[in-house]
Amino acid sequence: MKRSVYLILSALFLAALVLGACQPSPTPTPAPQEGYPVEQPPQPTAPPQQEAYPAPSTATIRVATDATFPPFEIVDEATKELTGFDVELMKAIAEKAGFQLEWSNLPFDSVLAGLAQCQFDLAIAAITITDDRKQQMLFSDPYINAGQIVVIRKGDETIKSKDDLAGKTVAAQLGTTGEIEARKIANVNYKPYDTYDLAFLDLANGQVDAVIADYPTALGFIGQNPEKLTTVGEVFTDESYGIAICKNREDLIAPINAALAQLKNEGVISELEMKWLVGE
C-alpha cells in the first residue's frame, strides 16, 4: 500500500514538471535600434503668447519734435543736425536707459496729433503737461518749470503786463499753452502762427504788439534779438514740461523717469539750463 502511494505521488510530480515546461516564456521587448525614433505620447500644446513690446533696453524709440523752439529744439545750420536743450536731454536719457533714438521733425500740432495716434513712441518739444493732454497721452515726470510770459518790443510803454493786452494784437504758436492763454484775454486780437520764430520775427518788425510764450522759450528768442525784445510782468502760469509718451508704451515711463532722476542728481539738467537758457 505504501509503495502504491509513493508511485502515485511520483507520477503527479513528473506531470507537474512536464506541464510547467510546456508554458510559453514571456517575450522580452526588443530594445530600439540606434537612431530609430522612439514614439512618445502626445504632449499638450502651450497656447501662443501675445507679442510684447521689445525690451526698452534694445528698442529703437521713435521720437517726435518740432525744431523751431529755441533754445529747446533747433536745427544747427552748420551740421543740419537737431540740437537744443530738449534734444541733448533726450540723448542723455537714451544713453542712461539704453535706447536707440529715431527722430522725426514736424510742426508742433502734428507732433501732438501723431503721438495721440501712437505714430511715435514719445515726443519732446517743450510740451507742457496739461489735464487735456493727459487724456490723449502719458507723461514723464516734469523736467523744468515753464510758465507763460508776455514778450514785447523794447520801448513799448503801453504794455507793462498781461493786463494791458486788451485791444492789442497778440501772437502765439498754434497748439501751445501760449495760444490757450492768449485766447482767454478779453478784447485781444489773437494772431496764430505755425511757429514761434515767425511770431517773434513779426514782433521785432512791429507786425504784432506782443507774443505769449513759455518763459524759457521766450528767453531763447530774446537772447537772439536782445536789442529789440524784452519780457514784461511776471510769469503768470505755473506749468511744467514733460516728455509725452504714447498711451500704448507704458513700459517707457519707468526707465525714462529713472534716467531723469539720475540726470538731475548728477547735475546734468542744471548744466543744460546754464548752456541753453540764455538770459535767465
UniProtKB/TrEMBL annotation:
<dbReference type="InterPro" id="IPR018313">
    <property type="entry name" value="SBP_3_CS"/>
</dbReference>
<dbReference type="GO" id="GO:0030313">
    <property type="term" value="C:cell envelope"/>
</dbReference>
<dbReference type="GO" id="GO:0016020">
    <property type="term" value="C:membrane"/>
</dbReference>
<dbReference type="GO" id="GO:0015276">
    <property type="term" value="F:ligand-gated monoatomic ion channel activity"/>
</dbReference>
<dbReference type="Pfam" id="PF00497">
    <property type="entry name" value="SBP_bac_3"/>
</dbReference>
<dbReference type="InterPro" id="IPR001320">
    <property type="entry name" value="Iontro_rcpt_C"/>
</dbReference>
<feature type="region of interest" description="Disordered">
    <location>
        <begin position="26"/>
        <end position="56"/>
    </location>
</feature>
<protein>
    <recommendedName>
        <fullName>Basic amino acid ABC transporter substrate-binding protein</fullName>
    </recommendedName>
</protein>
<dbReference type="InterPro" id="IPR001638">
    <property type="entry name" value="Solute-binding_3/MltF_N"/>
</dbReference>
<feature type="domain" description="Ionotropic glutamate receptor C-terminal">
    <location>
        <begin position="60"/>
        <end position="279"/>
    </location>
</feature>
<feature type="domain" description="Solute-binding protein family 3/N-terminal">
    <location>
        <begin position="60"/>
        <end position="280"/>
    </location>
</feature>
<comment type="similarity">
    <text>Belongs to the bacterial solute-binding protein 3 family.</text>
</comment>
<feature type="signal peptide">
    <location>
        <begin position="1"/>
        <end position="21"/>
    </location>
</feature>
<keyword id="KW-0732">Signal</keyword>
